[in-house]
Write a structure and sequence with these properties.
Blueprint: H1 5-10, H2 18-26, E1 31-35, H3 39-47, E2 52-55, H4 59-62, H5 74-87, E3 92-96, H6 105-117, E4 123-125, H7 133-141, E5 146-151, H8 157-160, H9 170-186, E6 190-194, H10 198-207, E7 212-215, E8 223-226, H11 228-231, H12 246-253, H13 261-273
Parallel strand pairs: 1-2, 1-8, 2-3, 3-4, 4-5, 5-6, 6-7, 7-8
């Protein structure tokens, strides 16, 4: 069981910051991230105990109906993040820099400024490895908190040729570990690992002082994230291996009890905190 001394003393009193999450990693306590794209859902999932409200460019697929995240624009991200930040009371708001919005340090800084000033984000996320070091350094130098993103990078799906697990080969695993350390050294505050073998994710998590957030990366990351619509079982199209329908599980487990969106999110929060999710079924070897 994780050490819960930090949360028990602070959960009901403190606004969540990047520093809060770093302290939770140091205390061995898991934290919870969930995507959200509007004010009503933001209020529900924060009330359910989620520490990080993440407005991801996944909205391009689950809200807008695109096949990939590539068509999502900065205006889309600013709009949806602003809806979330208005409903937020103490959770950290994280927002994606969409495709080609951070292609060089100056452009990344301009667009991160929009997400923070116009939309109310507290931290921005960007995809990419070692090639993003200068971008991260520039953002960090200007006081912009950054979450990196390694492993499967949905914005590069056309380059990758599909949604595939990354880092299974030894050379690829070594490169990802090196990229993770480079992002941390450049000033990244967190790192998201997507569709990565569980053992590699553990190696990266253990090697870093900044928190890692896993999605399809096993139980050893410092936090977990899911797409809200996957958690509720309402996403259209293919459901990834790492996704779990918590609303269905709540209904099956306690058919006479509370069946609601908030109850499903609370079940997810509890499963992450107690290190019951993800299990082997929702992880990659």
């Amino acid at each position: 069981m994780a050490n819960t001394s930090y949360s028990s003393a602070n959960a009901n009193t403190q606004v969540i910051t990047v520093r809060t999450l770093q302290k939770m990693k140091q205390a061995g306590e898991k934290f919870v991230v969930l995507t959200v794209y509007d004010a009503s859902f933001a209020a529900i999932i924060e009330r359910a105990g989620v520490e990080v409200l993440f407005t991801g460019d996944s909205l391009g697929m689950v809200i807008q109906g695109h096949e990939t995240t590539v068509p999502v624009t900065m205006d889309n991200m600013v709009y949806h993040t602003s809806l979330v930040s208005r409903a937020r009371k103490k959770a950290l708001v994280m927002s994606d820099l969409p495709f080609m919005s951070f292609s060089d340090p100056a452009r990344a800084l301009d667009n991160a400024t929009r997400l923070m000033q116009e939309a109310g984000a507290h931290i921005v996320k960007l995809e990419g490895g070692g090639e993003m070091v200068q971008v991260v350094e520039n953002l960090a130098k200007h006081g912009v908190p950054v979450c990196g993103h390694l492993g499967l990078q949905p914005q590069a799906v056309h380059k990758l040729g599909g949604y595939r697990v990354q880092g299974r080969e030894a050379e690829a695993a070594e490169t990802m570990l090196a990229d993770a350390k480079a992002m941390q050294d450049a000033g990244a505050d967190m790192l998201l690992l997507e569709c990565v073998p569980q053992q590699l994710a553990k190696t990266i998590t253990d090697a870093l002082t900044i928190p890692t957030i896993g999605i399809g990366a096993g139980r050893d990351c410092d936090a977990q994230v899911l797409v809200l619509y996957d958690l509720l079982g309402i996403s259209h199209g293919h459901r990834p291996k790492f996704a779990k329908d918590f609303l269905r599980d709540v209904t099956k487990t306690d058919p006479d009890g509370e069946v609601s969106i908030e109850a499903a999110v609370r079940a997810y929060v509890q499963a992450v905190k107690q290190q019951q999710f993800p299990d082997d079924e929702h992880s990659f070897k």
